[in-house]
Amino acid sequence: MSRTTTYKTKMRRRREGRTDYARRLNLLKSGKPRLVVRISNNKVVAQLVKYGKTSDETLVNTTSLELKKFGYNGHGGNVCASYLTGLLCGKKAVEKGIKEAILDIGLHVPVKGSNVYAILKGAAEAGLNIPHDKEVLPSDDRVMGKSINEYRKVDLKIDAVKSKVLSGKHGAKK
């Protein structure tokens, strides 16, 4: 007759389906900062996070809402906004002296050409060294919003916003 239970309750975030601890451990073993990507319906968040013993430290934080300062007038949750957010996050990281990272998509399903990989493409073009396969990245037409421009009959001017992000020029007062 046993005196202890054999069932062990899983951690709260695992029970809620928020964290895959096995994947997180493998990412932390790399020792590199993680490019954490979180996507909602209306905005995209890209962060560079470094592991700490007591808690993780956010080195760079960027959302698609910041793109309005650079003249972007499109929706904050599409592939164009994801690409520009990744570009901005990568630029901020390079300015802080961060040269490489590893992609952390959390519980998102990795789909070829999705918003997750648009952020990766933007961060890689900004100068971050992130290991990836070029086949999963979205096409240039999709990233530049050609289908959106045809549908909405409004030019999003992604090239102009991209050049402003890379040059660091925007209309906000410092």
Summary, kept brief:
The protein contains seven helices and four strands, in the order ααβββαβαααα. By secondary structure, it is α+β, with helices and mostly antiparallel strands.
Give the helices and strands as they follow along the chain: HHEEEHEHHHH
* Widest β-sheet, arrangement of strands: 3-2-1-4
CATH class: Alpha Beta
DSSP helix fraction? 25-40%
Distance between the termini: 71 Å
Strand content: 5-15%
Q: pLDDT average, as an integer?
A: 89
Low-confidence stretches: none
User: Tell me about the biggest sheet?
Assistant: 4 strands, mixed
State Rg.
19 Å
Instruction: Let me know the number of strands.
Output: 4
- Put simply, the count of helices is 7
Overall tally of structural domains: 1
CATH structural fold name: Nucleotidyltransferase, domain 5
CATH architecture: 2-Layer Sandwich
What overall geometry do the principal axes of the alpha carbons give?
A: globular
Features:
174 residues; alpha+beta; Nucleotidyltransferase, domain 5; 4-stranded mixed β-sheet; 7 helices; 4 strands
Write the layout of secondary structure elements.
Elements: H1 12-15, H2 21-29, E1 34-39, E2 44-50, E3 57-63, H3 79-95, E4 102-104, H4 115-126, H5 140-143, H6 146-152, H7 158-167
Helix pairs in contact: 3-4, 3-7
